[in-house]
UniProtKB/TrEMBL annotation:
<dbReference type="InterPro" id="IPR019576">
    <property type="entry name" value="Pyridoxamine_oxidase_dimer_C"/>
</dbReference>
<dbReference type="InterPro" id="IPR012349">
    <property type="entry name" value="Split_barrel_FMN-bd"/>
</dbReference>
<keyword id="KW-0285">Flavoprotein</keyword>
<dbReference type="InterPro" id="IPR011576">
    <property type="entry name" value="Pyridox_Oxase_N"/>
</dbReference>
<keyword id="KW-0560">Oxidoreductase</keyword>
<dbReference type="Pfam" id="PF01243">
    <property type="entry name" value="PNPOx_N"/>
</dbReference>
<keyword id="KW-0288">FMN</keyword>
<comment type="similarity">
    <text>Belongs to the pyridoxamine 5'-phosphate oxidase family.</text>
</comment>
<feature type="domain" description="Pyridoxine 5'-phosphate oxidase dimerisation C-terminal">
    <location>
        <begin position="190"/>
        <end position="229"/>
    </location>
</feature>
<dbReference type="InterPro" id="IPR000659">
    <property type="entry name" value="Pyridox_Oxase"/>
</dbReference>
<protein>
    <submittedName>
        <fullName>Pyridoxamine 5'-phosphate oxidase</fullName>
    </submittedName>
</protein>
<dbReference type="Pfam" id="PF10590">
    <property type="entry name" value="PNP_phzG_C"/>
</dbReference>
<feature type="domain" description="Pyridoxamine 5'-phosphate oxidase N-terminal">
    <location>
        <begin position="49"/>
        <end position="154"/>
    </location>
</feature>
């Protein structure tokens, strides 16, 4: 059997395993969109609070999607750093010299999303992104654990890495710097704020009767509508 045939057989086997994997096994939460608030920010805060209270694994972790100047998309997983529920805005951080930083400098619009399988809930937001002031960035960075600060001081996110040995050396040097300079902040550390223009809430149903509630910013208020799932 040729190498290509072996690969095709393995792919078919993998597809069968994907199809057999449990999905929306429940029990899931329910959602009544008629009782949802008129603005998405309070609903986001309520869903996140419920996820934290119920012990959903890492509900603060989100996917950030950006696009380069030429439109090339890129997505990565990072941590939610703050919420403004009154304005439906979320805060995250990164190095402005990284891929996401360069994308946001060229095209300051992004999308963020969360998926919590234990609740069968997905949230999506899109909107313009602004970089907050240097003082906010400094407070964010210095509020992190020593390990997290050392990680941020070791190299530049997304830059090419020559070897694992280089990585080990840079990490050791960064750990030593954190101990010697506890107020050190990387040059590129930036805190960003995404102010949602659109927000969507998706509630799964084991019988596939999913619900989607979509909000669109309309001046100082919001319009909302149900969408076909």
């Amino acid at each position: 059997m040729s190498e290509g045939t072996d690969g095709a057989a393995a792919d078919r086997e993998l597809l069968e395993r994907i199809r057999a994997a449990p999905v929306l096994a429940g029990p899931l939460l329910t959602f009544d969109p008629d009782r949802a608030p008129g603005a998405p920010g309070p609903l986001f805060a309520a869903w996140l609070d419920r996820a934290l209270a119920d012990g959903v694994p890492e509900p603060q972790i989100m996917t950030l999607s950006t696009a380069a100047a030429d439109g090339t998309p890129s997505a990565r997983v990072l941590m939610l750093r703050g919420v403004d529920s009154a304005d439906c805005a979320v805060v995250f951080a990164g190095d402005r010299r990284s891929g996401k930083g360069r994308d946001l400098a060229a095209n300051p619009v992004a999308a963020v999303s969360w998926y919590w399988p234990a609740h069968g809930r997905q949230i999506r937001m899109t909107g313009p992104v602004d970089a907050l002031d240097a003082g906010t960035a400094r407070r964010d960075y210095l509020g992190r654990s020593p390990a997290s600060r050392a990680a941020g001081l070791a190299g530049v996110t997304s830059a090419p890495l020559g070897s694992l040995a280089e990585y080990a050396r840079e990490r050791r040097a960064a750990q030593e710097r954190v101990a010697a300079e506890p107020d050190a902040v990387p040059e590129g550390h930036t805190v960003y704020r995404l102010r949602a223009r659109q927000a969507e809430f998706w509630q799964a149903d084991p019988e596939r009767g999913h619900l989607r509630l979509h909000y669109t910013r309309d001046g100082d208020g919001w319009t909302r509508t149900l969408l076909w799932p």
